[in-house]
Specification:
The protein is mostly helical. The chain has three domains: about 200 residues, Up-down Bundle (Growth Hormone, Chain: A), CATH 1.20.1250.20; about 55 residues; about 230 residues, Growth Hormone, Chain: A (Up-down Bundle), CATH 1.20.1250.20. Helix content is about 75%, strand content about 0%. The radius of gyration is 23 Å and the shape is globular.
Length: about 500
């Protein structure tokens, strides 16, 4: 690849463009978070459909992420990267032109499919522009950029949405995409695998069938009254069949897209499970907090977006500081500390009140960001310190995929329980209102009373979901005890 670069300056420009693409695709995931109310109002989108804005992007990226390297080896790195960038731009344009919820979700799916290819290939391009001695530590930089994109996306979207409407939030990525495309066209040399690469499509397909069917079941179940619907039955059957075929495939074949040798390393397996929980908590918290501020408490989009900044500062700051911790310190202690801080942050969120100002949200968000910033690099160090170096490329893919899967299922689950709990709390609160207690009221007064009860019920339901996220971290916290002491990585 480096043969066609215009010296070190060309390599630096190529790496900058690849990192900019990494930031752009991660920032676009939560970008609509602070302007959900505007999107829902414009597209007549129901509350349960709003959750698809995130789950569609995540699920689509989880489909293409595992096959990105195979596509590059089979069809050429430059060609595949340019095609993914073009699809990402297409998704952006379709999102700005959407007039129905289905059109908007379809645009997000296209964005997600492209994102799943752009992320790993951007990292591969960045690595090849670096000297060999600097590649080992580059993973921390790349992860920090991904996290910065995730936590800064809502603040950017909120500010633009407040002043210019929600559609221009997607236009911001168009000039960035044009710059990235130009740099890749001029500086990136084509590269294919010398031998035609192989890929376990049966294992990948069966696993994807199970995952997507489960995702659809969770997203659509409430709307279709669960198993009273034929569609839900089909999705449940698809989920069971997909995971069954995948399990049989793993147990009966020697070669598949998840190497069985990965599961022989205790540290890697336990760290991957904890990393799944981190993904479950991080994006789910954001998917709950912004609608709570925007729709229930009535904050404007720019304020809602700005309240994600403390989480971002805490997360990225702690992440970068962890890179300066000497190797002699046992990283298991930092894993335990990170888990404890995240649990404490979610416990603080249980104290949210309709009467609070913005400060409790900023404080809890910053503490959660610090916890995750401590946890992620420490967990990565523990996971790969005992893993066979020959398995690290496959392990890296599975490790990062676990976070994506955790985020996908986490957002779907908290959205599902949010709507169920809102209905249950509305019924419980309204049951105490009788004509003998409130007296005769006009229709307008009754409508106002119902709106107030709905807001109270929704707020209680949001707080209940923070409890689920706290429990998720509590469940995986005992796994820290079973981690082996890390050894110096090669």
């Amino acid at each position: 690849m480096n043969a066609h670069l215009a010296g070190p300056q060309g390599a630096g420009t190529l790496r900058f463009a690849a990192l900019l693409a990494t930031y752009m695709q991660s920032a676009n995931l939560p970008l609509p978070n602070a302007v959900l109310r505007l999107i829902q109002g414009s597209l007549s989108m129901t509350d349960d459909q709003a959750g698809w804005i995130f789950t569609s992007y995540l699920a689509a990226s989880a489909i293409t992420l595992p096959i990105a390297q195979w596509l590059a080896g089979r069809f050429g790195l430059k060609r595949v990267y340019q095609a993914a960038l073009a699809f990402f731009v297409l998704g952006l344009l379709l999102a700005t032109q959407a007039t129905t919820p289905l059109e908007f979700v379809g645009a997000r799916i296209i964005q997600g499919l492209a994102s799943g290819v752009l992320a790993p290939l951007s990292m591969a391009i960045s690595l090849e522009t670096l000297p060999l001695e600097k590649r080992a530590k580059f993973g921390a930089t790349w992860t920090a950029i991904v996290l910065f994109g995730i936590v800064s996306g809502p603040s950017i979207g909120g500010w633009i949405g407040e002043h210019y409407g929600w559609r221009p939030t997607f236009y911001l990525s168009l000039p960035l995409s044009a710059f990235i495309g130009l740099v890749m066209t001029l500086l990136l040399a084509e590269k294919k695998a010398e031998k035609r690469p192989t890929f376990d499509f049966f294992g990948f397909g069966s696993f994807t069938l199970g995952l997507i069917s489960l995702q659809m079941l969770l997203d659509r179940g409430e709307r279709l009254d669960w198993f009273a619907s034929t569609e839900i039955w089909l999705e449940a059957i698809g989920c069971a069949l997909g995971f069954y075929l995948f399990a049989v495939h793993v147990l009966t074949t020697k070669v598949h897209f998840l190497n069985k040798r990965l599961f022989n390393d205790r540290n890697f397996v336990l760290s991957t499970i904890i990393f799944f929980a981190v993904g479950f908590v991080l994006l789910s918290t954001m998917a709950l907090t912004s609608p709570m501020l925007d729709e229930i408490l009535g904050y404007p989009p720019d304020t809602t977006g700005s309240l994600t900044i403390p989480r971002g500062i805490g997360l990225v700051g702690a992440f970068l500081l962890m890179g300066r911790v000497p190797e002699r310190f046992d990283r298991r202690l930092f894993v335990a500390a990170g888990v404890g801080v995240v649990i404490y942050a979610n416990w603080l969120m249980l104290g949210y009140s309709p009467l609070m100002d913005w400060s409790p949200v900023a404080v809890a968000g910053a503490i959660q960001g610090i916890g995750i910033g401590i946890l992620m690099p420490s967990l990565t160090n523990v996971a790969f310190s005992t893993l066979d170096p020959t398995l690290r490329p496959e392990g890296t893919g599975l490790f990062n995929l676990s976070r994506v899967y955790g985020s996908t299922l986490g957002v779907a689950i908290v959205q599902l329980y949010f709507f169920n709990n809102t209905q249950a709390m509305h019924l419980a609160l309204a049951s105490n209102l009788t004509p003998y207690r409130v007296g005769p009221m006009s229709l307008q007064a009754l409508a106002g009373l119902n709106e107030m009860i709905t807001g109270q019920a929704a707020f209680i339901a949001v707080v209940d979901q923070f409890k689920i996220l706290m429990v998720a971290m509590l469940v995986v916290s005992p796994l820290v005890v079973f981690l082996r002491k890390p050894v110096p990585t090669n």
